[in-house]
Amino acid sequence: MSQQNDSLPQLRFDIPEATRILRLSRATLYERIRTGQIKTQKDGRRNYITAEELQRYVAQSR
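Structure (tokenized):
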């Protein structure tokens, strides 16, 4: 069976992944989420940040 996951882009990231991508501490990321600077998607009990939202945040932070 071939694995097609390699061809699909990652569309959303969990909090630890987002902290690594943005090079922010976990506390800073949660503060930016709390203040509305970064928007999350809730899936069950977990929060995710979309790739689009990460790109928007980085672009507006310049």
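Strands lie at 12-14, 41-43, 46-50. The chain is about 45% helix and 20% strand.
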